[in-house]
Amino acid sequence: MIMERIYITDVAPRDGLQNQSVAVSTEDKFTLISKLVDAGIENVEVTSFVSPKAVPMMSDAAELLPKVQNAFPHLNSFALVPNLKGLEKAQEVGVKEVALVLCATETMNQKNINMGLPEAIQSTLNLIEQSKQLNIRSRTYISVAFDCPYEGETPLQRVVELARQMYEAGTDQIVIADTIGSAAPAQVSQRIDEILKYIPQEKVVIHLHDTRGMAVANAWAALQSGIRWFDASVGGIGGCPFAPGAAGNMATEDLVLMAEQSGFDTGISLPKLLHAVDHAQQALNKSLGGGSMKWLRQNVKAAAPLNLNTQKVFT
Ligand code: COA
Ligand code: ZN
């Protein structure tokens, strides 16, 4: 039987690390990315070209990105840019793909990039256009696509409109983001079903956080609705500095385990992914891992093929 493939982007080096209190060296970030690549991860959000005053952890972007691109030419590595200045800085070091952020509410845009919603829409459209002209791919996050920490539930029609507008402007992927991790599976199905009426399924990515322990259930709902692209963060590292209450991202290992056990191919080795978790734990000096971590630690011991349906200890 040919297993259907799903595609995972690990966002730990950017979304995961941007809110950590411990400083992480460029070398440690590079080692973490190397371990992700070794585990089979094909897409990584490496860093962001943002104001170093706003997010000090990302101030080594111009050093880290080319280092990663040179070391792993086949890796789809990309960087977040909040504005034209960020795009220019990223272009100077040869970025091939950028992530753009459009928050779906007025207040969240103000808090994140100091712009209102209409300005942010215009700015994102300009960035999509500029990227195209520079031959740089783009993925556009529709942030707070479920709930906003400042404005409550985000109107679905607005999310659909923004996603559609950015897609029609030519961005390569639309990332529907549950930035604060407040969504439940029924809502995920409802919102994704609506969005997929207007945007082809292979262009839509879901970005989940695990604040309420529902990320994997939400990923399953998205899978059932036809989504095949997922963002996740190794060890579940994460949290947005501008969105109070946002906890870690969906842990990559939780997603891989759920998807493989459900008959999907991820191309990712769980034992090797655990080496990446080990490195992140060391770098951040704290224990990490999603809801499956305890079970994985006990059952996944080596890079042998896994029979995920049994409770046996794998060696
Ligand atoms: N990269 C580096 N520095 C930047 C920059 C960028 N992309 N954009 C602006 N700056 C610098 C300016 O040069 C200026 O520096 P100065 O104070 O030394 O003169 C300072 O930031 C303020 O610039 P300004 O144009 O007035 O922007 P702002 O104050 O409205 O800030 C952002 C806008 C978006 C750059 C800033 O708030 C930011 O980087 N936020 C981080 C967003 C983020 O990472 N969110 C999480 C991901 S969703
Ligand atoms: Zn996020």
From TrEMBL:
It holds the Pfam family HMGL-like. This is Hydroxymethylglutaryl-CoA lyase YngG. Belongs to the HMG-CoA lyase family. One of its GO terms (molecular function) is metal ion binding. Its EC number is 4.1.3.4. It comes from the Bacteria. Residues 6-274 form the Pyruvate carboxyltransferase domain. It comes from Acinetobacter stercoris. PANTHER family: HYDROXYMETHYLGLUTARYL-COA LYASE. Keywords: Lyase, Metal-binding. GO terms for biological process: ketone body biosynthetic process; L-leucine catabolic process.
